[in-house]
Amino acid sequence: MNDWAQQAAELTITRLLPRLEPLLKDDAHREGFMRRLHMHLPRALWHLHRIYGDQFDFFYHLEQLLHTAASYHGERREALKQLDAQREADPLWFKREDAIGAVCYVDLFAGDLRRLHDKIDYFKSLKIRYLHLMPLFMTPEGNSDGGYAISDFRQVHPDLGTMDDLRELTDALRAENISVVLDFVFNHTSDEHIWARKALEGDPHYKRFFYMFPDRTIPDQYELNLREIFPEQAPGCFTYRAEVDQWVWTTFNNFQWDLNYGNPDVFNAMLGEMLFLANQGVEVLRLDAVAFIWKQMGTPCENLPQVHDIIRGLNAMVRIAAPAMLFKSEAIVHPDDVASYIDWDEAPISYNPTMMALLWEALATRQVGLLRHSMTKRYELPPDSAWVNYVRVHDDIGWSFADEDAAELGINGFDHRQFLNQFYTGRFDGSFASGLPFNYNPINRDMRISGMCASLAGLERAEESGDAEQIDHAIKRVILLYSVIIAAGGIPLIYLGDEIAMLNDYSYRDDPVKADDSRWVHRPRFDWERAAGRHDTATAQGRVFTAIRDLIDARRAHPAFSDHSTLFFDTQNESVLGFVRNHRAMILCNFSEQPQKLRRDVLAAYWNIPTATRDLLTGEAFKIPNLFTLAPYDFLWLAD
Ligand code: OTU
Description:
There is one protein chain. The chain is α/β, with parallel strands linked by helices. The chain has 3 domains: 97-185 and 267-554, Glycosidases (TIM Barrel, Alpha-Beta Barrel), CATH 3.20.20.80; 188-258, Alpha-Beta Complex (Oligo-1,6-glucosidase, domain 2); 561-639, Immunoglobulin-like. 40% of the residues lie in helices and 16% in strands. The strands form 7 sheets. The protein has an 8-stranded parallel β-barrel with strand order 1-2-5-11-12-13-14-17. A 5-stranded antiparallel sheet has the order 18-19-20-24-22, with helices on one face. The protein is globular. It starts with a helix and ends with a strand. Bound molecules: 3-O-alpha-D-glucopyranosyl-D-fructose (OTU). 3-O-alpha-D-glucopyranosyl-D-fructose (OTU) binds next to loops.
């Protein structure tokens, strides 16, 4: 940004103000809007000019954008404007030790939006502060990619309720200090979205909302460099539509049409959808498949620089109109690219897919080297941003660690991924895991893994064999992984069902709509009967639930767990992960089924050990001996 953008923004405001006046005149919060307009428009203008500056009617588009921002601000309810003020005063709420997250499907967890009210006590029992509800909008009948093919961003799927229900729910959750997170599926719409339908009718305005080609010439050129995301169920990146005799860009399934952000009308329309959701009380938007939103011939069309301009432009506009709303990026890509989206002015929070994948890698190998090495290099973020750490979500596990990180330890990334895939599909001798392959690509032998946390951690096999020690180990593995994400800096995200150790659900195989997508194996209906046993520590669900609840309580009780610093270090034991939090707490986690020895003098090199240390999980004093043992899959949280 420079003086030019500053001056251009001021000129734009002066010029367009008369046209914004009617929208703002009854707005009690006009002043705040104007203050933020002066503050953020230069930024918006700078980024938008980089991508749309060569359009002859650039300032017309800018006027449209300001119009969109002012009108949604005008419609924003008083309660949400108060929230705006609150968040402006305390923007980093998501970095506190009480920032605990959870994610669930409305239908699978509660039935519908109204019945979700009855589950608020359950969220409260886990001290949830951030609740991601999986896509809940209108979709085509049948396969809708689990809700990620949206036909109308302003209509709740009738099976789940109405927009009024959603608003009521966000109000009820906000009253309990729970922020609602929704997906913003903005790389594509379903082919039943009104824009796609108009395009199919041949409407030239809406044809430009998508990428449409008269024949295969250009698609073939693009495809030379494109990655297939779903090579099994949706090979290729383009889909022929006879209605218009055109090839449509469809990165994901053939019914998911990529939006064309080269067209500023798309940017403006999507800003409107975004602000509409903000006005329903949504506080965080998960930017789905963010890497893919800009295309350029001769490139893989992922993580291009223009993607950042678009997100930063949207960020600036949202700051003006609905500053309580935050972006979270969903980029399951190379760790450098994951990091490229994380910034206060872009996406302040982001999934941490590298840590997720490497937690599973460490469990399989019983070695924490790669996890430690990658996290030492990559954990630190700009101070006003945070990771969302997770063990499982609704998607597959992709082994998206950096090959160069692996090579630095003498590990061949390709071979290691082959091993991990064998291990987690249970084909590797001695594996404890029951996972399923997801989208094997025979050309590059790439594959991802589906499965519930507890099944991948060995509970399913152990229960089948009835081996008590194996059952015990499996339960401990689940708890161990959650202990890492709950202790680490950022928002720990519980994939609901994991906390009661739910297992794989193979019933999707009988449903023709789901059968070819193994991710459904880890999207079971929440088992409330199993949950009823969650306080009984003689059961698997009881052990996992109480452990996770206690970890959350321990985290909330100590300032060492706000997101300030998380320093990974070498414990001099290849099976034990160690990290120090805010210079005040030390976490030690044994990733093997063997007891592991640790030395006080090694730990003391990374942590100025206080005279009186406490085990935060038992609450008791713990004097660190010169040499001590961590039991199989055990962990310690030590602090002053
Ligand atoms: C996201 O994930 C969603 O989380 C998926 O559930 C959707 O199917 C998909 O977008 C389409 O909307 O391919 O396997 O590299 O991997 O964005 C998961 C990033 C996915 C992609 C990721 C995508």
